Fold each of these.
Amino acid sequence: MRIKQAALALVAAVAAAGPVQADVRATIDSAFTDLQAARRSGDRIRTLTAARRMAAAAPDNPVIRTFLARFAAAAGDQALAVETLTWLADRGYGVDARARPDLKHVLSAPGNRNLVRRLDANLRAVGGVSGLAPISGGLDSEGVDYDSRRDRLYVADASGVYAVGADGTAELVGGGEALKDRFVLGVRRHPKGDNIFVCSSARPDTGEKAAELVVIDAADPRRVERFDLGPSSGTRLCNDVAVLDDGAAITDTNTGEVLRYRFGGGVERFGRTLFTYPNGAVRVGDVVVVADLLGLWALDLNGNLLGPLRGEDGAYIGGMDGLAADGHRLYGVQNLTAPARVVSFRLGSDLVLRDRRVIASALPELQGMTTATLQGDEIVVLSRPAGATEPPPKALVRFKAR
């Protein structure tokens, strides 16, 4: 589920190359705070200084490098911007619409035409859409999941949980009162309990700190339970849900905690690891995979940290938002890089991701994508492709997954 606070998107996806390091986390947190303040005040030099600190902490991260290029250009350091863009071009990355306004003077300079051609070549489209259906009713959902028992998809927003047909028609299932005026992110169906889990948090402008896991009985949607994620020193943000045999693991983006909900019980900590802005989560075999700003991490089914996932031959696996899985096959919405991609890997017992496949890349239908789910032999991506209206409606975009 996308982290909606715009400032969080500025520092997303620091690549995981080894164990959790407190000094790296401290650097990122400190630079993030400075970056927020500098951008609010319009101080471009201070913004660039914060971006340099982040790049020094994560020198091989393409997302951070892109921000460094943007802020260097905005601060008038054209040489650093060109150097950083060259680094990106050399490694197969480009510049998308999010970055181009800050870089327009660099990209339009006659001496940089060859560099621009190389960056643009890295944005060539991959994959073919097998279906696209705008979601009716203007729903602003950030999560989607598939109910194999009823052969339907679920999305949710502040008006409730909806079942969506192949043509995009949305029908209210339930949960409207529990989710009313809330900040709704992850949606996950539990096949054994036949429940729909929904992440619900207070909207930032309310001053409330509470976040909840809303549990809806899929067989009788009138039965709705709300579970508070518990006290914390700051504002909680329930982001995503991974299915466990007896309940669910829940990511709390703001506190860095992963929590556990048990059927018939309450909510407790799931292990003791503190993550850096944890986002997507999914179960892959006997492992829970969590995406955070330091990459992808594996927890066992008791919440113990097993370690970081690593890409085969050093392949970059960061920049992930939503996650899905089929057996030991992990699917990721890699929307924080340019080009934006839908990718899949096979997760080995050694925590190495092998057999990388790019299902789709640099397609206009991927604009604004947040997460995905599997339905038969297709992966269904929740996105916001450009359309005739502004803003364009959310849509379900289908690709062959295998």
Note: The radius of gyration is 20 Å.
Amino acid sequence: MKTLLILTAVVLIALEAPAVALAADASSGIPDACQLNWVRDHRDGPGTVASGYPVLDSPAGVRWAADSPGPGTWEIQIGDAYDTPTTGAGMLGCYGFPTSAGLLNWSAYSSFSMKFTNHDPVNGFSVQLIINTGATGIGETDNLYSTALTPVAPGGAVTISLPLSGVENLDHVSNVSFKLAGDTDRIDVTAEPELPPVPTESTTWGLIKSRYGE
């Protein structure tokens, strides 16, 4: 039986205001060179990563192009999970985090934020942040936490923040990823782990927790 718990997440519209340092955001431990090795999670979404991507963007971030499997709305999840059976993922060793039981230890962090920039001047898409926690090999429950799907306007950018307060087994993070959703032939986006900008304009969304194995 899966149980759901709705908490609070904040989505901040990317502005020109300078970023402020929020204490202990996990984005500080994810360099672009590490995100460059993230892969499509075959278990969630039929979209595919376009040939030649991802690439490092300038001045920062990683640029992804994801292609539609056909007509209609589609999704793709991209990230790093301990059990993703693809070379280049599986809890990479290039993060700036301690590890525990072969997983990432985020117990010192209070949030996880990423900035998404849409390079398409005509079409928008939606995006959400996702993490899993729990070392199932030692009897812990597999917990999934995510923000709601957040729109990114054509040519626009948003910074999404997933609060980690109340997250169970934060010392055993087994998946770090983002999901893209749209109805266009291609989603062209730069993903950049980043501290949220000054919150002069914001929208409140739900942080959704799914708990498996109960």
Note: The chain has one domain: 3-211.
Amino acid sequence: MALREAGWKGNKEAFDGINDTEMMLYLQIEKLGAHLNVLSPLIDRYQRGDQTFADEALRWLDEAEKTMSNLRLPEGAEMSMLRGRILRSTDEILSAQVNQPKSVLRKARNVAASQALDRAEEIMRARILEAENRLKFFEEKFSEALTHYMLSCRLPAKDPQAYDQWLSQIWSHMRSYEKTRPLILYMSASLSPSDRSIIMIRVLDRAVQKNINVQPRE
């Protein structure tokens, strides 16, 4: 899910001054998804018998490791291991017979590269799914909490010129409100500030669009 789909578009002012490295779950989804988007053309090379396939697979895995390292994901270490499997793929063949045709060695290397990419894709999609499920859980819980809050309180007026202050004000009010305080504290401990902001934007924008319980600006 791209950040603009998550609530970024139209609300950029809420994120001014936030460093990308602070973006955790949503950034994982965007960065890993972008890397997976170039995987299909790479697999096409394998199916065509492209001689550059294994080398391109190694480059893809190297970039995957860098991406996951920047995201501080421990699975990045496995990308290095997968590269090693490709590089060692011809060792067993050569140990049995030194003078092997290049076509045999290339085939073994390509098979190892294909298997490595399959495993890398599995790892990255599992991480994306985990992030999506976690964000969905907190978005549903925040939506429920907001409903409870609005049964007794009105949301402050939305000021497009001070969107981040509006979010902070609502967050502070809900943290002080007895019925929503436990969830707000839990979200504070479980999510990055920017992930929380995106969740708030998604839920609050739906509420505002429905004209639910928002104070008019004076």
Note: The first helix runs from residue 3 to 8.
